[in-house]
């Protein structure tokens, strides 16, 4: 099969039929073999009925329905598990992404051998204050921390080599950082394509302003995971030791000063160095313990893959 289109959705009943017809049209005129995976993430409208209807008419349509709303990342994860096409394309269900981009994206993966191609909504039809500016800031921060040079991390329209989606673990709200997850898994040929963006036609936005707060918190998490996820002690241990040494230094200074240099001076407990010594030593120990616990948790998680094999010789 050439292409799997993975579409996570929440309450998009008005758009689904139009979207399906459009995709099917594009696929047929380009003679692609394809499947469309709709993942209904606990919609409370008639989205699932629409998907069932579409599936009964077109056997390339497959639907997955979650028992409740688990979030876009989980929906993508479920879609990625099932996908079978050589190229996997994700897109939003609200008709803001244009299915006419599919053939070009497909070629970039198959012919130009990209691992991942991300859409770039260069011209957006959204409000400037609520979306465009925060989004620019967000993308700038994501570029800086991850080293992945993309202009638009969060674009719903992306194309992947099948290998990529089978080997990354999208969880929490990490759908914003799939290119970073891919990079961390060793898929480094990441491209970008300017795509058309339409204003939302039906329904309403599903993500409020809190997306930016969550987005930035996730960014810190992903920075930490990608640098120290497999070796927490290197961060926390180093910080802990550093703090502890600072505290120890102050303690020695106070002790020597009190015993030999200036025995009749102020009480030790009246001096600021005392409190510095106390707090840095306590915080240092805590950092150290945090690192140690992190290492223990890592070791007890034996089922988690710690590496990814790219190839094996055929005699295995
Ligand atoms: N699976 C799943 N999909 C979701 C969820 N929330 C939103 N979506 C889908 O993700 C896509 C993008 O959501 P939108 O609300 O359109 O977000 P947006 O495009 O940034 O915002 P607008 O420009 O206002 O449309 C749409 O296809 C939604 O149906 C969710 O909780 N779970
Ligand atoms: Mg949208």
TrEMBL record:
Parts forming coiled coils: none
An annotated GO cellular component: plasma membrane
GO biological process: lipopolysaccharide biosynthetic process
Alphabetized UniProt keyword annotations: Cell membrane, Glycosyltransferase, Lipopolysaccharide biosynthesis, Membrane, Transferase, Transmembrane, Transmembrane helix
Alphabetical list of Gene3D superfamilies matching this protein: Spore Coat Polysaccharide Biosynthesis Protein SpsA, Chain A (3.90.550.10)
Domain Glycosyltransferase 2-like: 4-146
GO molecular function: undecaprenyl-phosphate 4-deoxy-4-formamido-L-arabinose transferase activity
Entry keyword Amino-acid biosynthesis: no
Keyword presence, DNA repair: no
A family per Pfam: Glycos_transf_2
PANTHER family in the cross-refs: UNDECAPRENYL-PHOSPHATE 4-DEOXY-4-FORMAMIDO-L-ARABINOSE TRANSFERASE, UNDECAPRENYL-PHOSPHATE 4-DEOXY-4-FORMAMIDO-L-ARABINOSE TRANSFERASE-RELATED
Record-given protein name: Glycosyltransferase
């Amino acid at each position: 099969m050439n292409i799997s289109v993975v579409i996570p959705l929440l309450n998009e009943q008005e758009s689904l039929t139009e979207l399906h017809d459009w995709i099917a049209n594009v696929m047929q005129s380009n003679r692609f073999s394809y499947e469309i995976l709709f993942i209904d993430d606990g919609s409370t409208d008639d989205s699932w009925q629409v998907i069932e209807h579409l599936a009964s008419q077109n056997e390339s349509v497959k639907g997955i329905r979650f028992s409740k709303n688990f979030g876009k990342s989980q929906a993508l994860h479920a879609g990625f598990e099932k996908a079978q096409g050589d190229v996997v394309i994700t897109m939003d269900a609200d008709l803001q992404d244009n299915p006419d981009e599919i053939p070009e994206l497909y070629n970039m993966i198959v012919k130009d051998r990209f691992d991942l191609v991300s859409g770039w909504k260069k011209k957006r039809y959204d409000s400037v204050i609520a979306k465009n500016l925060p989004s620019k800031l967000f993308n700038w921060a994501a570029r800086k921390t991850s080293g992945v040079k993309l202009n638009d991390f969060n674009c719903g329209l992306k194309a992947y080599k099948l290998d990529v989606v089978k080997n990354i673990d999208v969880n929490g709200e990490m759908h914003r950082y799939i290119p970073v997850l891919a990079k961390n898994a060793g898929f480094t040929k990441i491209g970008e394509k300017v795509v058309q963006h339409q204003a939302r036609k039906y329904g309403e936005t599903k993500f409020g302003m809190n997306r930016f707060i969550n987005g930035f918190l996730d960014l810190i998490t992903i920075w930490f995971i990608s640098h120290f996820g497999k070796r927490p002690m290197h961060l926390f241990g180093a910080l802990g030791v550093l703090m502890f040494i600072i505290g120890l230094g102050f303690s020695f200074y106070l002790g020597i000063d009190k015993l030999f240099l200036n025995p009749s001076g102020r009480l030790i407990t009246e001096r600021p160095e005392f409190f510095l010594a106390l707090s840095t030593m306590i915080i240092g120990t805590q950092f150290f313990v945090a690192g140690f616990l992190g290492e223990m948790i890592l070791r007890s998680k034996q089922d988690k893959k710690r590496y990814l094999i790219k190839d094996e010789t055929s005699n295995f």
